[in-house]
Amino acid sequence: MEAYDCLKAIYLERGYRSRDIPRLILENNLYGIDIDTRAAQLASFALLMKAREDDRRLFSNPPKLNIIALQDSQPERLDAFSQDLASTNIAQADLQELLDLFEHSSTFGSLIQVPEALAEKLPDLEKKLKTASESGDIFSQQSAQELLPLVQQAKLLGKQYDAVIANPPYMGGKGMNTELKDFAKKKFPDSKSDLFAMFIERGFVWCKDSGFNSMVTMQSWMFLSSYEAMREKLLQDRTIQTMAHLGARAFPEISGEVVQTTAFVMQGQHINGFKPVFFRLVDTAQDSKELELKAGLNRFDSTVQDDFKKIPGSPVAYWLSNNVYDLFESTLFGEHFEVKEGLGTRDDDIFLRRFWEVALYKIRFSKGQEKWIKTDKGGAFRKWFGNQEYVMNWESNGFAIKNHRNPDGSLKSRPQNSQFFFKKAISWNKVGSGITSFRLRDDTLGFNDAAPSIFGDELESTLSMLNSKLFEYLVKIQGGTLNVTTGIIKALPFLGLAESYSISKRAISIAQYDWNSYETSWDFTENPIIRTEQPNLEQAFNTWQQQNANAVAEMKHLEEENNKLFIDAYGLQDELTPVVPDEQITLTRADREKDSQRLVSYALGCMMGRYSLDEPGLIYAHAGNQDFDASRYQAFQADADGIIPLTEMHWFEDDATHRIREFLAAVWGKDTLEANMLWLAESLDKKANETAEDTIRRYLASKFYKDHMQTYKKRPIYWLFSSGKQGAFQALVYLHRYNESTLARMRTEYVMPLISKMSAMANSLESEIENSDSAAEIKRKEKELQNLHKQQAELSSFEEKLRHYADQRISLDLDDGVKVNYGKFGDLLAEVKAITGEK
Fold first, then answer.
1. Are residues 783 and 671 located together in one domain of the fold?
2. Parallel, antiparallel, or unpaired for β 718-722 and 730-734?
3. Is residue 131 over pLDDT 70?
4. What's the rounded Cα separation, in Å, for the pair 219 and 318?
5. How far apart are CA 609 and CA 632, in angstroms?
6. CA quadruple 770, 776, 782, 784: dihedral sign
7. Model confidence at 481, in pLDDT bands (50, 70, 90)?
8. Where is the Type II methyltransferase M.TaqI-like domain positioned along the sequence (predicted)?
C-alpha cells in the first residue's frame, strides 16, 4: 500500500489523469511473488480495493495484476507435454529446463534464479504456448494452459526491477530440509547460513544497477563471521543508502533478545566515499522505536562505508568514532595470544559430573592419575574468578572421550586442544546474555567447548582489559552479544595496560574469596558467618553482611577505576562511561534468609561428617562410609550412620532439629543458644504461634530439601528418603556415607521404632478421647487421631518397600553420578522426577 501511494504521487506529479493512474500502477509498476496461494490472493484483493477507491470503473475491465503464487512443476510429465505440444515446435530441451527449474518452487520460492539463456527464450516460448492454448487440439490446449503459469513466474523471477522490497523469512540451517540445504550450499555459498541472507543476495540479482534493495532482516549479517564473505561483497559492490538498526523487540509480536532486526535500503552499485545514514534504535524501548525513527533521533551519518573494511571481518559498525577505528591498528588478540575452543564431549551426562557427586579421592586436584579432572564449563555471568564446579572423566588421558563414537562408527566427541589442559588461562562463557564475563583459571583444570580460553603471558593485566567497558564495547562491534566465539576474540585489538595489573589482582582476590565462601566450591573451607568469630549468631551475620557489602563496594570501585583507566588511555570519553551498574558486580550478596539456609546446610554437613568444626574444608567425601574417622569431629560429633531424621514431630533424639541446637551450642556456646535459635527461626519465616524449635523443625521437614536441590543444581548430596505426602517419616542420607546396609539400618533403627511409637501414641489418644468430657477436646483429639492413622498407613507401606530394597543391598557407583544412582530406589526418595527426569 505504501508503494501504491508513492507511485500515485509520482504519476500525479508528472501530470497523469487521476482515473488512469490505478491501472497503470497495477499493470506496470507493482510485482509480487509468494509461495503461498492465499497470501497472493489477499495481496491482490487488497491492491484491487485500494485502486477501486481511485477508479470506480476499475472492475468493469479488471486490470491484469502481476502478483503470483509460485507453482511446482512436474518434470516427470515431460514426455506427455512434449507429445501434446509436438505441433508447436517447442524444443524438448527448453521444456525440460523450464520444468526442472520449478520442480521445488514451493520450497525454494523466489530464491530460484532464471538462467539468462532461458530468460531470452521466454517470449518465444510464451507466444507458442498462447497459440496452442487458443487454437490447438484439446490435449495441446490443456498442456499449454498448465505450462503458461510456469512461463509467467519465470518472467517475473527473471526481470530486473527499480526497487525490491521484502521482509524475507528467517530460517537457519537446522530448520532446512535436505533439498533446501543442498540448494543453499550450491546457489548461495556466502549466505547459506539463513534464508534471510540468501534473499539479500537474491534481491540484488533482481535489481538494476541503479535500483534499490530494501529489506527488513535479522541484524546478524552485519557482524557475524559466518556472513563475512557476503558482507565484504556487499560493501565492495553495493551501497548502503540508509538503515534503521532496530535490534531486539522491533515488533510487538516478537519478544526476547534472539530476534534482532535491521531495516535497510541498499543501492545495486557501489559509490566510492559514500556516507550512509544510520539510525541506531537498538537500545530504544519497543514502543518508542517508530517515534524516534520518524523524529530522526540517534542519527549517524559521518562514517564512510569503505571504512568498515578497516576492522577485521568488516562489521557494519557505523556508530564508531575515528578513535575506535584507530584501535584496530593495534596488535590483534589472535596475534598476541593462543585463543582456543575447548573439548566437546557431546555427551556431558556420560563424561561430566559436579565435583560433589563423585568420590573426592578420585579427583585430580594437582598432578596425578586420578579418574576425574577439574574442568571449566563456562556457567553464569561472573567476572574475575569462579564457575568452577565440574569434573570430567579423563581416565587414561581421556581415552573414553577421545573414542566416543556414533552408532555408525564416526567420532561423536570433539576432543580438541587437550594439550592446553592444566595451563593457566582466561576463560569466558561462549553463550551469554548480552555482556561477556571473563575469569582467571589456574593450571589444575581442563576446559570444555562452553568455556573457550586465552593462553599466554600477562594474563592478570589482560583480564582487566577483557572485563572493561572498552572490551565489552569492542565485542559488540563484532556482533558478540549472545554467542562470543574464539574468532570474535581473535579479531579484537589487544590493548593491555600494565597499570591495570594491581586492579586485576585485587579483583581476582575478592571474587575468589567470594566464590570459595560457599559449599559448591571445591575450595570451600568454612561457613562465612562462623568464620567471623563473633560471640553470637546475630552479630556474626551482621559482621558478615558488612564484610560482604564492603567487598561489593570495593569491587565496584575497582571496576570503575579499571574502566576509567582504559577509557582515558584511548580517548574514548565521548563514547563510554566508566560507571558499572550494581547488578553487574558479580559477587553474591549477603541475605539473612539465604545465609541462614546456608548455615543450616553447613550444620547438616557437619552432622553428616562432610565438614568438621575442628578442621577447614572437606573432611569426608569418599564412598561407602569406608575409612570414616569419627575422631576428626570433637567439637561437634558427626552422626554415627549418616542418617538424619527430618520429622514433623520430635520422634528421635538425633533428629535434625535437635542436632541444630547442639550445633549452635557448639559454635557459640550454651549461654547464647536460645537467642541464636530465635534469630535463626526468625530468619526462616517464624510464625507468631510457633516456638523457635517449631519453626526450624517445619523448615527442615518442608523446605530444606527444595533449597538443597537448588543449591546443588539438582544433584543433591543429602538424599531425602520419604514415606510420602503425610510426612510420617523423612530422613536425609549422605550420599558419600551410604552403603549396602544403610537401608536396613534405617528400617531397624528408625522406621520400626517409629511404627511402635505411633502405635503407642494412637492408643494414648484413644484413651484420652474415651476419658474426656469436653466435646471440643474430643473433636480435636479425633482429628489428631485421624491424621495419625493416615501416617501409620503410609509408614506401614513405606516399611514394606524399604524392606524390599534393603534386602537387595543396593550399592552405588559414585562415578555414575547422582542422576543415575538416585533412580535405584524407586519411590523411596523424594523429588525423583526432578533429578532423574523420569517418574
1. yes
2. antiparallel
3. yes
4. 13
5. 9
6. negative
7. low
8. 28-248
Last residue of a domain, which of 51, 69, 87?
A: 69
Q: Is residue 618 part of a domain?
A: yes
pLDDT score of 457 more than 80: yes
Q: pLDDT of 138-196, one tens digit each?
A: 888 998 999 999 999 999 999 999 999 999 999 999 999 999 999 999 999 999 999 99
Do 240 and 303 touch, CB atoms closer than 8 A?
A: no
Q: Do 484 and 351 fall into the same domain?
A: yes
Residue 77 maps to a domain: no
Predicted local distance difference test score (pLDDT) of residue 295: 94
Q: Of the candidates 346, 246, 253, which has an alpha carbon nearest to the alpha carbon of residue 289?
A: 246
DSSP state of 209: E
DSSP 164-233: EEE-----BGGG--HHHHHHHHHH-TTTTTBHHHHHHHHHHHHEEEEEEEEEEEEGGGGT-GGGHHHHHH
Structural domain that includes position 772: 599-836
Query: Which of 544, 560, 584 corresponds to the end of one domain?
Result: 584
Q: Are residues 413 and 471 in the same domain?
A: yes
Q: Can you tell me the mean pLDDT for 614-621?
A: 97
Does 734 have pLDDT greater than 80? yes
Which DSSP string do the residues of 655-678 spell out, in sequence order?
A: SHHHHHHHHHHHHH-STTHHHHHH
What cell numbers appear for 339 in the block?
A: 585463543
Distance CA 289, CA 291 (A): 6
Give pLDDT, residue 526.
97
C-alpha count within 13 angstroms, C-beta hemisphere, residue 400: 13
> Are 633 and 698 in a shared domain?
yes
Query: 216 to each of 264, 479, 812, how far by Cα in Å?
Result: 7, 18, 57
β partners of residue 218: 261
- Residue identified by cell 509436438 is 86
Q: Which grid coordinates are listed for 40?
A: 497472493
CB-based contacts of 603: which residues, under 8 Å, 6+ apart? 659, 660, 663, 664
